[in-house]
Design a protein that fits this description.
The protein is mostly helical. The protein contains seven helices and no strands. Helix 1 runs parallel beside helix 3.
Length: 221
């Protein structure tokens, strides 16, 4: 099977994501000045990976090379990059040993919100598309991705290049990300609700015959 250019870029983003995680894993806040270059490199790797998300989507549409592979792998690559970044931000790697505070401004519960949103939307998308529905990303999902990418980029850049007196702005961006992420869940639920209700109505047999109901459910998926 020949992998087209947009899909090659998507696969390249997965490679960049692995490199990004490796750089963050090697960073040590206890040896901040010595390992600061790791954050600087991680920042540029993240920026390139985030930009590649827009590039492969644009090329796939422009070249009319939208494939099933791309539809599945592209959102997975996005989620791994963003969710992984926030998991690292909330980890002990970024906890100042002197103040015992996380210097990124990301709390563990915030990461749970991000992960919950992605898992819930993925489940809704699978449920919708299994029944032939269209559950592609909408405006709220795109805004969410942009805000998350900007926040992650700023966290990395501020710590890597100007770590002094930027914690306040980091926290503002992190809270904005949490709010936007949570609100995007609502828009997807509103889109999925009519379809879920319709499928539920079709799955019920008015005659009350359980056997018929189960068979019908099996056919519709």
């Amino acid at each position: 099977m020949t992998i087209n250019v947009p899909n090659q870029i998507t696969l390249g983003r997965l490679v960049l994501t692995a490199a990004f995680f490796g750089l963050l894993s090697a960073f040590s806040i206890e040896r901040f000045e010595e390992s600061r270059w790791l954050l600087q490199t991680a920042f540029w790797v993240f920026v390139v990976a985030a930009i590649s998300d827009a590039v492969d989507g644009y090329l796939a549409r422009a070249m009319k090379q939208i494939t099933s592979f791309g539809r599945v792998v592209d959102p997975v690559a996005d989620k791994v990059l963003i969710c992984g970044a926030f998991v690292f931000f909330a980890s002990v790697i970024f906890v100042d040993p002197q103040t015992h505070r996380n210097v990124t401004g990301v709390a563990p519960w915030m990461v749970i919100v991000v992960l919950l949103r992605e898992l819930l939307v993925s489940a809704l998308r699978a449920f919708s598309e299994a029944g032939g529905g269209d559950f592609s990303a909408d405006w709220s999902g795109k805004i969410k991705m942009i805000v998350q990418s900007i926040t992650a980029s700023f966290i990395l850049a501020s710590l890597a290049f100007w770590p002094e007196n930027t914690l306040g702005l980091r926290r503002v961006l992190v809270w904005l990300t949490v709010v936007v992420t949570a609100l995007s869940i609502i828009t997807y639920l509103r889109r999925a609700w009519p379809f879920m209700f319709a499928r539920g109505a079709l799955a019920r047999d008015p005659s009350g015959d359980d056997t018929t109901s189960h068979n019908s459910h099996g056919v519709t998926g």
